[in-house]
Amino acid sequence: MSEVTFAKSFLATLDKKPIKLPADHVSDPRKYPAQSPYTLPRPTHPFPRKTVPAATQEAKQKTVTATLKPMRGGETVTLADLTLQSTIHDIKTQYAQQSSQPQDKIKLLLNKKPAADLKTLQELGVAGETVELSVMIMGAGAATPTAATTPAVEKSEPVAPSTAEPPAVDKMDVDEKTPAPSSEKAQAEAEAKPEAQANTAHQILASEEFWTDLKGFLSQRLRDDQEAGTLVQVFREAHAKQ
């Protein structure tokens, strides 16, 4: 007798018995008829085991080659031996190791849409053996000028003392003749720096890459491409009116 048959027969027996007991009735267990314990039969089929879906096994075995191209120009990095279960965080880690870029500044885009770090390639809809990702480095425009100007200052400072120290006459000549030119040169450099910075900022704001990066950043933060495009258009029109 199976469990379902036993349950049906038990419920049918209960239904046949008339209910004529008051609400506060308490039955006496000493009057219960003697019954032998019932042992459920052993199931003929064992319990099913959890099996890993075939699609998941194929995703773990299938290798994917990812090509990472920087949006502002630079060296293209190719990562092989990836799987469909590889996350965007894993890809960013490998890219940071090969390109020497800070990992927290790297943003990856798939089909011009930001990809979350915890998403796998399979969850993002990648089915082939190759995938192309765009790389956006946040804050790269501000870091480039400082890196270029720092070595020049370090090289120019140690050279000046070596030429001025040996002859004593040169020191007197430098003290008498150079104060005015050096001050004028320093003043010209000080006046030229804001203009250069203004020109650089104007060129960045006039480029299409800046607005594309801004739209990608807003899309990732707001998770809404349409709203991000609207905000970028508003910012661009406000900047054009200045």
UniProtKB/TrEMBL annotation:
Annotated region described as Disordered, given as residue ranges:
22-56, 148-204
Supply the SUPFAM superfamilies for this chain. Ubiquitin-like
Q: Which Gene3D superfamilies match?
A: Get5 dimerization domain, Phosphatidylinositol 3-kinase Catalytic Subunit, Chain A, domain 1
Residues of the Ubiquitin-like domain: 64-141
* Stretches with biased composition (Basic and acidic residues): 22-31, 168-178
- Quote the PROSITE patterns the UniProt record gives: UBIQUITIN_2
Domain of life assignment: Eukaryota
What is the name of the protein in this document? Ubiquitin-like domain-containing protein
Organism for this UniProt entry: Baudoinia panamericana (strain UAMH 10762) (Angels' share fungus)
